[in-house]
Write a structure and sequence with these properties.
It comes from Burkholderia territorii. This is Formate dehydrogenase. This protein has 1 helix and no strands. The chain is mostly helical and 22 residues long. The radius of gyration is 10 Å and the shape is rod-shaped.
């Protein structure tokens, strides 16, 4: 399930920088 893995990775990576400064 590489698609799911990539989707989760992208979501997590995009959420990390948003939550860091917050």
């Amino acid at each position: 399930a590489p698609i799911v893995r990539d989707a989760i990775a992208a979501h997590r990576a995009s959420l990390t920088p948003a939550a860091a400064p917050a």
